Amino acid sequence: MAQQPQKFSALALSVSIVLALGIWMNATMQGDDYSIMVDVPLTVNVPENRAIESADLPSSIRVRFRGEGWQLFKMRLSIFDWQIAQLPRCEVNISEKFMHDGEDTVYLSRSALSQGMRIPIPVKQYDVLSDSIIVGIGTIVSKDVPVRLRQSIVMRPGFCIVGRPGVIPDSVTIRGNRRLLDSITFWDTKNLPAVDVHRNLAGSIGLDDTLQAIVRRSHEEVAYAIEVQQEAEFNLEQAPVIIVDAPEDHGFILRPAYVSVTVRGGIDDITQLNANDISVQVKYKDLVDNQTGILTPEVVGPNNDRLQILRPHPHLIRFVRQIEG
Fold first, then answer.
1. What's the chain look like in SS3?
2. Which of 325, 279, 271, 284 is nearest to 302 (CA)?
3. Distance between CA 186 and CA 147 in Å, rounded?
4. How many domains does the chain have?
5. Residue 199 domain flag
6. Within this chain, do residues 248 and 311 fall inside the same structural domain, yes or no?
7. Range of 211's domain?
């Protein structure tokens, strides 16, 4: 009886290849030396009464590692967030003895960076490739600055934001180097994106963390509230132009004596307006001091930031002064 030919198994062949490759890699990577370059996270610690001044302090340094293949392979996989092994890191502690009197900078040589290396994986050799680092050090202070909501909001046509977006708390206490904090007058939030907005927005958002390595904040996020209304306009036709702070016999004649004014805002606020809430004014002193005979009147409206008062039409008026003779 003739033997039947054996069937080819693709699965068996694939398994054999993988096993052979694994045996070869294991034998090769255990015995040979390899080298890789890694960006190692950098942490610089200073005394409690001091703060880092350098805004451009690097967050990592470049290091070349040499060792057995498997050890370096584990390190490489960990860099890609596969936590097979702990990552190396560099931590430099700057004590007061590093800082000389009257100096506000510390020089971190490659040797100092090398001494700060923490390497959980056994390696045969490592070399710091990054340049030496100059770290600005200053006295630590704290101050309160207002929080500014950063946003890129696209409104639905016919809708508008009413007033200024509110944030709670509206300020943040920051702590860091005196010279750096003197240059900070407000603190941004992270960007708030939104499209086709046609209703109120509310939620929480984190503070910008650009300087988190050198500036400490009292809190990490704020609540925000943005009021949205349907957009509307209020048109005041033939509003008289009033001369304020003028004597009765000032003699000035304005041309035209009436202008039209447009106020734009949310429909809820616009419906509460009336003609008495808006006046168009020029100051007597401005008329006296003006030699051109032309000026722009000022539109005075409700004392809030919820309405947008457009410039009057016409926005330039002429004036002449009658001289009694």
1. CCCCCCCCCHHHHHHHHHHHHHHHHHHHHHHCEEEEEEEEEEEEECCCCEEECCCCCCCEEEEEEEEEHHHHHHHHHHHCCCCCCCCCEEEEECCHHHCCCCCCEEEECHHHHHHCEECCCCCCEEEECCCCEEEEEEEEEEEEEEEECCEEEEECCCEEECCCCEEECCEEEEEEEHHHHHCCCCEEECCEEEEEECCCEEEEEEECCCCCCCCEECCCEEEEEECEEEEEEEEEEEEEEEEECCCCCCCEEEECCEEEEEEEEEHHHHCCCCHHHCEEEEEHHHHHHCCCCEECCEEECCCCCCEEECCCECCCEEEEECCCC
2. 279
3. 6
4. 3
5. yes
6. yes
7. 139-229
Identify any residues that bridge with 95 across adjacent strands, giving them in sequence order.
none
Please state the rounded mean pLDDT for residues 288-315. 87
CATH number assigned to the domain comprising residue 255: 2.170.120.30
> Is residue 30 predicted with pLDDT exceeding 80?
no
Whether 130 has a pLDDT exceeding 80, the answer reads yes
User: Which residues partner with 253 through β-bridges?
Assistant: 320
Task: Let me know if residue 48 belongs to a domain.
Answer: yes
Q: What is the mean pLDDT of residues 33-59?
A: 81
Query: Within a domain: residue 215?
Result: yes
Around Cβ 116, how many Cβ atoms within 10 Å? 20
Q: 259: which 2 tokens?
A: 């202008």
Q: Report how far apart the first and last C-alpha atoms of the chain are (Å, whole number).
A: 143
Q: How many residues are present in the chain?
A: 325
The more confident residue out of 313 and 311 is 313
Amino acid symbol at 273: L
At residue 97 the predicted structure's pLDDT band, cuts being 50, 70 and 90, is: low
Residues 176 and 219 in one domain: yes
- Flag whether 5 is in a domain: no
| pLDDT 10s digits, 163-196 | 989 999 999 999 887 878 888 999 999 999 999 9
Q: 78 and 56: one domain?
A: yes
Same domain, 122 and 29: yes
